[in-house]
């Protein structure tokens, strides 16, 4: 058997706002995990989003895409901010992120929502509803309303008209559905496919293809929910879900909702997978209101790095020890402002990073 690889080229894209702060902490934790588990990370840093617009004139340069495609993994902080809000859609920081997803064909976006036991009471829902949530949203990431043509704003005789196109090709549905089923096989073997098949043709096709793929996975229990019902079910009884598979726009919305079940969107990591390199980023945005103040919660970014360890580096022990370190720090009562409760010790973004990195050195 070939010896497993222990050195990895990682492209680090801090981006904008709190992206910069949380990325620094994730890198700190990655280094500590590397030391504890004999892994070496060769990090290259580049710009994306508003930072890239200011310095390079575009939200992501061809060179950065090239570096990403050649790397073993990409870690991305967050993009966007008020400074660039007035730019047209095509030139905005978000375009940098969307462009990377598309160019690298990162079609499956994994957004796990797990409740860390010490945070059960930080959720706005009752602890008994939240306890034991362990669900994964698999969001299609390179098609749907986000990329469908035609799109634009035109002038008509009646005035201005804005339009976007929701479209899915069968193979686009098939590949993401297959990914969701494969993942469900190593989880609790339940897939909920979310669509709006009572109204939309794209959803009708979505449902048909998901049912076709399901035939290859007889062990999986498959059900279908309309997106409006699913958004209600997530609040009513989130423990019913194992894997949720859905399209780009529905997944964008439902994954924010799922994130909040865990107490804070500052806790939710994500992985975007294709056939080649994968990209890891927190679900939260650049939070310009608290940027540069050391208040951000770096745990979503740190947990994204843990996903990278597990998936791209194939080092599940290292990933598990990062998660254990996060859990311990939370158990000890440390919190960033967004998850603070009475009696907890509020720490800064970098203190949180130090704490997690410190615990990694200890128990392993
Ligand atoms: C996300 C974000 C992005 C999206 C934005 C920043 C373009 O909300 O990753 O969920 O809509 O996909
Ligand atoms: Mg979103």
Short description:
It contains 12 helices and 14 strands.
Task: Please describe what this structure looks like.
This protein is an alpha/beta fold and 364 residues long. It has 2 domains: 1-111 and 265-364, Isopropylmalate Dehydrogenase; 134-261, Isopropylmalate Dehydrogenase. The protein has helices at residues 18-37, 50-56, 62-70, 93-103, 127-130, 170-185, 201-214, 227-236, 248-261, 299-311, 316-331, 349-363, and strands at residues 7-15, 40-45, 73-78, 108-114, 134-140, 152-156, 159-163, 190-195, 221-226, 243-246, 269-273, 278-282, 334-335, 345-346. α6 (170-185) packs across α7 and α11 (316-331) crosses α12. The protein is globular and about 60 Å long. Magnesium ion binds next to α9. Residues 252, 256 line the site of magnesium ion.
The hetero compounds bound to this protein are: 3-isopropylmalic acid, magnesium ion
Radius of gyration: 20 Å
Shape estimate: globular
What is CATH's topology name of the largest domain? Isopropylmalate Dehydrogenase
Main sheet properties: 10 strands, mixed
Strand order in the sheet with the most strands: 2-1-3-12-11-4-5-10-8-9
Structural class: alpha/beta
Strand content: 15-25%
The structural domain count equals 2
Which sequence of SSEs, written as H and E, runs from N to C?
A: EHEHHEHEHEEEHEHEHEHEEHHEEH
Number of helices: 12
- The low-confidence parts are none
CATH-defined architecture of the largest domain: 3-Layer(aba) Sandwich
Kindly state the number of beta strands. 14
Identify the quaternary structure here: single chain
Mean pLDDT: 95
